[in-house]
Amino acid sequence: MKKFLSFAVWTALTLIFTVMISCSDSGCVSSSGEVASEEALVNIMTRTSVRDYTDTHVSSATLDTLIRAGMSAPTAGNKQPWKFIVVTERGRLDSLAHGNWRMAAKAQAAIVVCGDTTNVFPEEGRDYWVQDCSAATENILLAAHAVGLGAVWCGCYPISDRVAMVRDIFDIPETVVPMSIVMLGYPTSESTPKDKYKPENIHYNKW
Question: Residue 178: is the preceding peptide bond cis (ω within 30°)?
Answer without folding.
Answer: no
